[in-house]
Amino acid sequence: MMLVADGVVDRGMLSIGNAQNPARVELRPTEALLSRLVPEQTSVVASPAAVRVSGAHSIFAAFERLTIPLTAGSVQEMIAQAAWNTDIELKAVTLHSGNASGTEDEVIIPSLKITSSTDRLGETVSVNADGLILAGADSVEPARIVIQSEVMSVLDAQRRSATVTAVLDNVQAGVADLSGVMVRGVSLSEVVRETFGSVISIEAQADLVTVPMFEDGTPELAVASLQSRVEGQHGLAEVGLSPAGNGADLIAGGRVRARLTPAIYERLALTSAEDDVPPMALTAPATADVRLEEQSVPTSMVSQSANAGKTPAIPLSNLARYDWTSAAIGLTGTIDRIALKNVPGVARPIVARELTFDVSAPSGLRSGATVNATSTVMSTPTENGARDSSVGQVRVSAKSQPGADGAMALSGTVKCAGVDLEVVEGLLGWTHRMLPTAFGRAGDVTIQLDGAALPDMLGGSISSDAPEFTMASLLEPATIRVTPVLPRLTGNLVIRQPKTGAVNVSASQLNYSLDSEMVEGFLNGKTLRSSDAELLGAAAAEVLRQSGTDGARLADKLNRNAQQAWTMVNKKSLLGVTIDRLDVPLDLLLGKAFDLRDVSASGAIGMDDVLLARGDSQTAFRDMKLTFGGTNAAEGLALKLLGSPTITQGGGTEPVQPAVSQDGISLTGMLHALAGDTSVPVVDLQGGMKAIPVGIVDSMLNLGGRLEAALGTTANMQLDLANIGRHSGAGSVTLTSPNGTVQMPSLAWDGVTVTATKPVTGQLAVTSAFSDSLLSQVHPALTSAQQADGKTPLSVNIKSMTVPVNGDMSLLGADFDLDLGQLQLKRNGMLSDLLGTLADKPEMQAAETTTALIPPVAVSIRNGMLHYDKLDITSDLFTISSNGTVDLVKRQLDLGVRVPLFGWRSQFSQMTKTPMASLAGASVTDIPFYLTVTGSLDDPKIQPDPNGAKKVADEFFQNMIEDTVKGVLGDILGGGKKK
What we know:
disordered N terminus; alpha+beta; 55 strands
């Protein structure tokens, strides 16, 4: 035995160091030497990273035992039987990593101790490591790294394998060795930091082997099995690979629970270079929990030479060049909440809540896959803080399969249950409640997609550029069937894309329901419905009647309004829609600019009989049909409306029996999609409507029954209208009825009012309804007046006119001359009140009516205030003159009235204390009396004019002086003649 270099040499063995006095070796390598220990180009899945090493201190190695047998044999055999036990310690070693973008990160190893031991170096070596890692110079908390491994067959490259268990705790997710791994321009370290957290822990256990590559026979590391786990404050990832038992395949499985942040989503979003709108983006982080079901990895992934087929393995280089679209996939998962903005065609962000999904592709995506997903879609809170509102529950079932040309074809079904159309309308940025009004509040919609082209989105390596993806390429060969089940819309639409950039829509069984609520609401407007009047009840009506004159009149008015309300007898009618062809540009559906010249359409809308009742009459609309067609929407779509309305008196609520009628509707027109620079549809209409119910037109224009009172129950209408839309339009209208004719040669429409730009003329018979509705608002004495027998109708010349159609009488304005001619006036009512007791005129008391002549009167209306300077009502017995103002908005009167004195003799005598016979012999009929008429139109109040006595005296003495002068002049002139 002898001492050699702090060691011991025994006979037949060479031993260096021992546990009590180990041999120590200190190395001070240069940076160039250390760098040679690390490949200059580390080939990873994505772009390569250049790595260099610098060391500020030495590397120490302590050999507790190194025993080499000195028996005869080759050097390799001696080494294979050598015993080994050593510690290696690294201090202040830095790894520098530069990525493809030119930036550089570093990993600092403050301390790392590696121990290894084996009884026979040629068989199994245990290698363990324990130390600290700082992820960059700015790191504060070092990561703890613990590695335990066993390497078998160290000297045999054909059979070398290892089992490695590694734990890294408190790792900062920004380490340099991940920065060079890029996924569509995002470093893997950035993905890890955002999805799992800034600090993570890693656990991994792997069985590794080295196998020769087929190209040059050099050894390559391969994975036979792997169990790994990454966990941070935001989530975790688990991946497992294990042998399948058949010597070829592996079983793969795993789970990822991670946070998806808006920043990472935006960087990873797949968008077409042609998009001119912002890509969809997250508005808040989402948490996803995805599970990869255990399944077999295809044999094409497995090296056939791994241990002669006994131990399956996956060479690392195969990961980069393997076609993952042929791998079996079984994914299930949930995402708690995805909030997206910039969704095409949707103004407000939306939320998919509790999204669950499963994806199955037993033979790989290229062989076909099935997808099922369910989620509740919400609208995001509004600016005023309103809570989310549910759009509905969405279920998706989709399947892809290879087409005849090898391309993938996609088919599937999307079912939207409980779709809230009011919320959908809010998402689209609309505020006028068109969707719920037109189709009902909520319902179901099913969308079926067949034969869509699925772009090759998964081909190539993970670092390749995003494939071009456009909606046109997806839909070009596809057929889409939309089946709505809404309160007012059922049936199906078929959508196809016959050529790139165009979409064709057709429908043959689409039904739109007109129910009583919709029709009655449209016709009645603000008019009280019968059902509303019934809500008052008998008790409420009795209270109104007991409250006095005003209450009685109000109750009567409510009843009259209820009688004038429309009801739909059959409660529901269907519109059958047939779309033969509707071609629109794809850009229209995507919310982009499009050319109207590319829009064409043809089809028809037919309507079931609609039975309407009002009071004791009933109206039936039959054989209504609207056809449309055009090949260039920029020039317009031609329209044609045909139908047959009939009115039956005394119909009540019983169905109207079919009747043959020559009267009907015949209108032609043109629908223009644009008016100027605004996207508002407008229509031109020409033609006529015979025997139309005037009450329906009156209700639609919110005229309060005035049009029907003037024209009667039915009328013929001749139209020539242009650019009629919600806020514009012009044209001419002629109305002819048994009551007369009204000609309106030039009208303008602004959405609220109709203005006559040329004089309106009319000749109309004066009926009781006409007087009660219109003339009574000019003067209360004209209530219940009628046209005198054999006399000509009234004539009106309206020089200017603005009529509101929203019921706001403050917008009413007009200047017109009214010639009423001779009318039959009733003695009772306001006329009787104006003429007093009529005690001195027994002939008036005996007659219920009197014929009166009303000379032409000029009337003006400004902001709903009607005014005239003089309106005379003259009969053989009296003359009544009036002037003043009627407030049509507040329905208030302020009139001054001059009446004959005979009816007021007793009152006048008490005021003057003068016998009537002493009034210079003047005719009592010629003596005036002045009154005021105030109060409401429904209950006018008559009182003596406070200034009436002075007016009487002034007028009486003026008349007396005029009579005296006339008498003197008569005598003079008469005497002169006698001479």
